[in-house]
Amino acid sequence: MLLVICVGLCLFTFFRSAISMFRAWISLKMSYLINFQWTSSFFSHLLKLPLDFFEKRQVGDIHSRFDSLSIIHKTLTSSIVATIIDSVMIICLIVMMILYGSWLFWIVLGFSVVYLILRMVTYWTYRQISEEKIIKAARSHSHFMETLYGITTLKSLNLLQKREEQWMSLNADSFNTGIRITKLDMLFGGIHTFISTLEQISILWIGANLVIENIMTLGMFIAFNAYRGSFSARIANLINVFFNLKILSLHRERVADIALSDIEEESKKPFEITNNNASLLIKDLCFQYDQFTQPILKDIQLDIQSGESIAISAPSGFGKTTLLKLMAGLLKPSSGKIYFNNVDIHQLGLSNYRRQIACVLQDDKFFSGSILDNIVSFEENYERDRAIECAKIANIHQEIMAMPMNYETLLGELGNNLSGGQKQRLFIARALYKKPKILFMDEATSHLDEENEKAINQAISNLNITRVIIAHRKSTLESTNRIIYL
């Protein structure tokens, strides 16, 4: 009898281990198959969202929402297969326990119901703390990113200590909330262990009496107890998975803010210009950020002929930059139309339109790589001679050649190893490399001396491209064919 029991327990342990390994292998395979597709599709959707989506949100908040997708993916891929296998195993274990000790099974089930009720009672508290943790972590991350981007300003204003204290406070709040969640998890684990111990003692006490009274054989009791242990572990895991999936609604809501946002309108038809004509016509253009604010621009009418150079002038805060972003297709008008060569740019398709234009904006950025990489916008099959020619037009070639690594000089994403004037000239070179038919420039030469600015304006004017310039400097305004006052 003892040999049979030992062999049975060995076989049970073997199959239990095999099933656990199979479950882990299937979960791992599904995880890698799904992860790449999900994150790629989500990132692609994020990049296609309109500019105002990003202007209304902090970087840390967007990053946190992207992280929520990873949490959803990890939870689902690790839970679905495990849940299916555990559910099948639980059904089999229930049948075996009923066969070996029918009414003992109801005692085991009763303890599992107690644990389920406990999780139900504490669910909303756990959800509230989890939501608080997500929000506080996003705030801390946003503060961290803002600090890095504004490190020069913070040093110049001697605000480093204050900024550090603010970040430490935000980070402490995030960590403290995380500790509260961990404490709840520990509490659930401790309570489950306590309930499981009580269950084991109860079954051992009742089962031993049944064996003594010959109502149940020793072999049946040992087999039942083995099935009970597996059942209790799997049913507790199933309950935990169920509540983890309910908590995912928090992350689903955060992901939905991105996933359900409308992307920019695109035309599926390719569009190519066979000539160098590039005119812009603006009719009845109005723009406001939302229905609760006053319009920034109202009833704008503008006709720009191909090859013309115009300047837009107005006091600060009158919507010059907003108008330029609208003309460049970066923002969508609240009403009115913008026509490129007599075709509505939104019917043309923003990608098609942006292939024909280039912008030099006030808040332009470099990306990690060499100077050459940034000028050619990281093209694989780039034309080095054309990149050098664009640098010469932007009057930056000689300064690049004076650097130790010339065009291979590495830039950080902030370009902090360059002066303001050098940055602007590199931005101009990058814009010109696209061979744009329309060039939009928003205070693109504000950091340059008049001699450099005059040389660049003269070189660009020789390219015979349409130019739209925003500037305050009188010499810049006078270098254009026409000045438009808002």
TrEMBL record:
It is a multi-pass membrane protein. InterPro entries: AAA+_ATPase, ABC1_TM_dom, ABC1_TM_sf, ABC_transporter-like_ATP-bd, ABC_transporter-like_CS, P-loop_NTPase, Type_1_exporter. Residues 280-486 form the ABC transporter domain. Keywords: ATP-binding, Cell membrane, Hydrolase, Membrane, Nucleotide-binding, Transmembrane, Transmembrane helix. The chain crosses the membrane at residues 75-98, 104-126, 203-227. It holds the Pfam family ABC_membrane. Its EC number is 3.4.22.-. This is Microcin-H47 secretion/processing ATP- binding protein mchF. It comes from Actinobacillus lignieresii. The lineage of its organism: Bacteria, Pseudomonadati, Pseudomonadota, Gammaproteobacteria, Pasteurellales.
